[in-house]
Input
Amino acid sequence: MRSMVLGLVLLVVSSASAQEARQPNIVFILADDLGWTDLGCQGSKYYETPNIDRLAQAGMRFTSAYSAGPNCQPTRAAILSGQYGPRTGVYTVGGTERFDTSQRPLVPVENVQNLPLDRMTFAQALKSAGYVTGMFGKWHLGQMGEYHPSKRGFDEAIVTMGKHYGFTTQPKVDVPKGAYLADWLTDQAEAFIVKHQKRPFLLYLPHFGVHSPFEAKKELIEKFKNKPGVGGHKDPTYAAMIASVDESVGRVLDLLEKLKLSENTLVIFSSDNGGVGGYLEVGLKTKEGITANRPLRGGKGMLYEGGVRVAFIAAFKGKIRPNSTNDEPIISVDLFPTLLELGRAKAPSQTLDGKSLVPLFTGERFERQAIYWHFPGYLGSGKNEWRTTPGSAVRAGDWKLQEYFEDGRIELYNLKTDLGQAKNLAETEPVRRDELLTMLRQWRTAVNAPMPMPRQKK
Output
């Protein structure tokens, strides 16, 4: 009898230890082109995001989170590799021929369009640590052959983007007629979770929503048609697209609860860059946008806050304090080292530019001098108008400096007192300006950042 009791005690202790030792599940949901204020928990009074708001109430909302690029591709490369653009060569979307820069004074740096094969992804690192890995949605780092996510560490991977209805997939799979992309991707995510619930899993769910073309389910459009706009948020189709992404988040959270996985699952929600809006306010005449990023300046495609500041929410029961906020500046390259630490995975041979966010999750000490951006090309908005010309930026503490290469223009802002970047302090704060400019230029040297070259006159 005594040996039986002892055996039961050991079994209970062993089970508890095994549960404690199990690596956490990781769910990373990435929206596309979602503006910083496009969520209820981020201040919108028009868009409705009850499920994402629920995630924020369950965890930590980072108020100074940034994408590593002002548009889709460079951010995704930074997320997957843990490296800033100068290390991967991925700075923008497409090649330099995408916009006619022949009349501009600088020749842009050629852009790398596929994530280099010698870079380990966070999926490869976690897979080596025993995770089963899945990715469903927008990859944007090379879809064919060795560049497909199924060859970059994901056990299950379906790539699709470009349309919200009538979409195609890589590899080709059967899609029900009339399926809406956000819903269909969530179907794949749910099936993955159910299938692999007994072992540690990594789910990467990069939605194509809310990227153009602006298409949404009719019933959701009707829901917003008669709702008065607030603060530049007013488009019912765009609101319906956000609602579909929110429904996806809710379905994933509900399934985790149903399967009793919430206690050991980190859920992160973010966006790949700022919202498509804020252009008229900065003087562009040919690009209106679909949303508003106020109080931030500018929008997608710009180094101003509206182009690179994004929502970032992390929830993990018992590990992250619920309904909390954190003002520490964080950036896309921080995700890789964060997942390495949580997943107890071996670091890759490549340099990782970010820092693990685990100390911020748990309220411990976190120190970093600055975060950086480098964009050695052009992003057009219409005839002879540019969302950005070649430049770099640095944020250190409350201060942000932007340097533009065509004319050497320097802009310096105190984001604590001037979130909308209305007052350039470069002339009135010369000591601060020179300090940040030195940091930025030293960083470019350290990462071998290529610079656009002067155009030769014919």
Q: What stands out?
A: Residues 124 and 325 are 31 Å apart (CA to CA).
